[in-house]
Design brief:
This protein is an alpha/beta fold and 398 residues long. It has 11 helices and 17 strands. The chain has 2 domains: 97 residues, Glucose Oxidase, domain 1 (3-Layer(bba) Sandwich); 290 residues, Aldolase class I (TIM Barrel, Alpha-Beta Barrel). The strands form 3 sheets. It has an 8-stranded mixed beta sheet. Helix 7 links the parallel strand 13 and strand 14. The chain is globular, with a radius of gyration of 23 Å. The two termini are 25 Å apart. 36% of the residues are buried.
Length: 398
């Protein structure tokens, strides 16, 4: 697991007031040095002039004396992975540095807001009713600094659509500055029940935009119970229908736990008959953070124990021509017939592997574990030792 935020060891010649600085990391001279932070990794680093900030790794600490009145910070070892093209926010008043974007990562996601109108039993990011409008400003500063060949970025919450026009500004910025970058937004879908808002969303005409919406049952009362919001099911369904009426791409997400797995085959039947036109269905293992951890005693079910329901649901969805994937579940827990649907979905910065995974012949294809699996994981984890399956598996998954 990578730490994306850390305490600055030392800081000098930097103004401590204000909201902080969003800067692109550079390890060489660049044209926009005034928007960049130069990263010095060793005492041999050149220290070119004109940068907004100088980041000194532990091996370059002695260079501080050469910087004289130029602004610099001494980085903690936790951020040893910083590279040219990454983007950081430096908060002098807090003496913290946070990594907003990693150019080499395919898992760049932004928490847009902590506010939400659902209160899901297993939410890994419990909602807070706080004023965090500043986050959008930070994101709008970050997007123009990102590498134009970034494959994909994601936005999550809380509920991003609660920000209304301000979040649409974020999507417009993505279209302007990153026209070739896929954008994935996690939303509960309820705001799209307002057709006028769905039209605003569609009017952006982003070339590669997907919204991921949770649907936990074919039964409204069960869905509303899981998300702890009366009427949420009806609004979510209307939102999905509005988006698809406007030719927007929609992914449906189902988190698997004690309250949802038994309904999985019925939900698959419902989707194949009524929402066949959605673009993707993701069936997801539990991340044990936030409310999921607090409610673990009532939510937990070993993935081995719902393999029958999972296999039936995937079979129904696949046979009906729907694109279906399995997220967050280890290959050794899945029926082998489900392996072609398994995806490495856990973000690289919080993905880990268990001691038992050593020597496993499909480790490189397996999605591994969330860091939070230390609180609870299946007792059936084991290495798989087979020959000649890696290539076939990779082709099927791709």
């Amino acid at each position: 697991m990578l730490n994306l935020s850390a305490k600055i060891i030392a800081i000098k010649n930097v103004k401590t007031e204000g909201p902080g600085m969003v800067l692109r990391v550079a390890d060489r001279p660049v044209d926009d040095a005034d928007r960049s932070a130069y990263l010095a990794r060793s005492v041999d680093s050149a220290l070119p002039a004109g940068f907004a900030l100088y980041l000194l790794s532990a091996g370059a600490a002695s260079l501080a004396t050469k910087l004289e009145d130029r602004p610099w910070v001494l980085l903690p070892e936790d951020l040893h992975y910083l590279a040219h093209g990454d983007i950081v926010r430096v908060s002098p008043h807090e003496q913290r540095i946070r990594v907003l974007y990693r150019v080499a990562s395919s898992h760049n996601h932004f928490l847009v807001t902590e506010r939400c109108d659902n209160y899901c039993l297993m939410c890994s990011q419990p909602p807070r009713n706080v004023n965090d409008d500043w986050v959008v400003e930070e994101i709008l500063q970050t997007i123009p600094l990102m590498h134009p060949k970034t494959a994909e970025i994601g936005f999550t919450g809380g509920e991003p659509t609660l920000l209304g026009e301000r979040f649409l500004d974020v999507l417009r910025a993505c279209k302007t500055h990153l026209p070739n970058t896929a954008v994935h937004v996690l939303s509960n879908g309820r705001r799209f029940s307002d057709y006028a808002f769905a039209e605003q969303w569609a009017s952006i005409e982003h070339p590669d935009l997907m919204v991921g919406i949770p649907l936990y049952s074919d039964c409204s009362t069960m869905h509303d119970f899981v998300v702890q919001a009366d009427g949420a099911y009806d609004e979510t369904i209307r939102g999905i229908l509005n988006l698809k009426r406007l030719n927007q791409r929609v992914e449906l997400r189902v988190v698997l736990h004690q309250y949802t797995y038994k309904h999985l085959p019925r939900l698959a039947e419902f989707l194949s008959r009524n929402l066949l036109f959605v673009d993707h269905v993701a069936l997801m293992g539990l991340e044990i953070m936030g409310f999921a951890r607090a409610n673990l005693d009532t939510l937990w079910v070993d993935p081995v124990d719902y393999q029958d329901e999972l296999r039936v649901a995937v079979s129904i969805l696949d046979a009906s021509g729907m694109r279906v994937s399995i997220y967050n579940l280890q290959l050794c827990l899945l029926d082998e017939s489900l392996w072609p649907f398994a995806v490495q979905s856990i973000s690289d910065w919080k993905r880990e592997y268990a001691e038992e995974c050593g020597g496993c012949s499909v480790r490189e294809q397996c999605g591994g574990f969330f860091f939070s699996a230390k609180y609870k994981r299946s007792s059936h984890i084991r290495p798989i030792v087979q020959q000649g399956i890696t290539s076939n598996f990779t082709e099927q998954r791709a």
